Amino acid sequence: MVEKKELSSKNLGLDCETAVKALTSAVPILGGPISTVIGDIQTIRKEKRFIEFINGLQEDIRNLSDHVNAEFVSKEDFLDIFEQTARKIVITRQEAKRIAFRRILSNAILSSDVSYEEVEEFISLMERFQEEHIFLLSILRDPVKYDEETGNRVGKGRGTMTSFLEMVN
Question: Does the reported pTM lie above 0.90?
Answer without folding.
Answer: no
